[in-house]
Amino acid sequence: HPSLSLSLSLSLSNPLFSLFFTMAAQEKEGGGGGEIMRDYRKGNWTVQETMILIEAKRMDDERRKMSRSSKHGGQQQQPQPAQPLRWKWVEEYCWRRGCQRSQNQCNDKWDNLMRDYKKVREYQRNLNEDGNNNRNNKSYWEMDRAERKEKGLPTNMLRSEER
């Protein structure tokens, strides 16, 4: 087994600590029941990997909505999975579709996507509110990479084909 060295400022008394790092490195194989080590892909995310992650998050949201809406009579809602378990589900979904990223990588990538999305959304909202008062500003989608960078916006967002 490869050794794992981490510098963490986490409390070892946290019950999720052990679960979180065990799940990040191992997978319970559905058929054989044996544990295997995963070799996660490193480096920049491809567009295909990013699209798989977005699909996984959409499926996770739907799965969680179904779980919440499955009230019968006076029964309580099912508790939502803890965050490490939730991201483990996303990792599993991605892994089955060829995106070999860890739950931590998925979570980090999602946070970065959301940060960039919110910047673009806010820019577009301000542009629309200004209306004709500021004709010098272009839509994010009309700018080239250099113009986006100059305005402090993400340079590599792609527009969805579904509008």
Précis, in short:
Residues 1-18 form the signal peptide. 50% of the residues lie in helices and 4% in strands.
Describe this structure in words.
It is a single chain. Strand 1 and strand 2 form a beta hairpin. The protein is built from five helices and two strands; from the N terminus they run αββαααα. Helix 2 packs across helix 3. It is mainly alpha-helical. 50% of the residues lie in helices and 4% in strands. It has a domain of 96 residues: Arc Repressor Mutant, subunit A, CATH 1.10.10. It starts with 14 loop residues before the first helix and ends in a 13-residue tail after the last helix. It comes from Opuntia streptacantha. Keywords: Signal. InterPro entries: Myb_DNA-bind_4, SANT/Myb. This is Myb-like domain-containing protein.
Oligomeric state as shown? single chain
CATH structural class of one domain:
Mainly Alpha
* Computed CA radius of gyration, to the nearest angstrom: 20 Å
Query: Would you report the number of β strands?
Result: 2
Q: Give the DSSP E fraction (strand runs of 2 or more residues).
A: under 5%
What is the succession of H and E elements? HEEHHHH
The termini sit apart by 48 Å
- The CATH topology of one domain turns out to be Arc Repressor Mutant, subunit A
Number of discrete helical segments: 5
- Give the name of the CATH superfamily of one domain: Homeodomain-like
Helix content: 40-55%
Protein name: Myb-like domain-containing protein
Organism: Opuntia streptacantha (Prickly pear cactus)
InterPro entries: Myb_DNA-bind_4, SANT/Myb
Keywords: Signal
